[in-house]
Amino acid sequence: MSHDAKHLTDLSAHRWRVSIALTAVMVAIYFGFMLLVALAREFMATEVVPGLSWGVLLGALVIVAAWALIAVYVWWANHYDRRVDAMREARR
Known about the structure:
This protein is mainly alpha-helical. The protein has one domain (about 5-90). Helix content is about 85%, strand content about 5%. The radius of gyration is 20 Å and the shape is elongated. The model has no long low-confidence stretch (mean pLDDT about 95).
């Protein structure tokens, strides 16, 4: 296997690891929240401050976590694309 092919294979494997890791984090956050909703209703109904329960607060944090993970992925994808473009330029 040539050096370029090995580098591309390693880069592709890294892309999958990052994608799987980010997906696993989001699934854990989402299903953790769903388990709290299903199994800890009293806790989720407890008010943190008047008018704001743990359920609403944690639900909003799930959305913020999704945005944060998307931002991490976009940052990483831009880095990945630059590396792929550099490989393409090196081949020319």
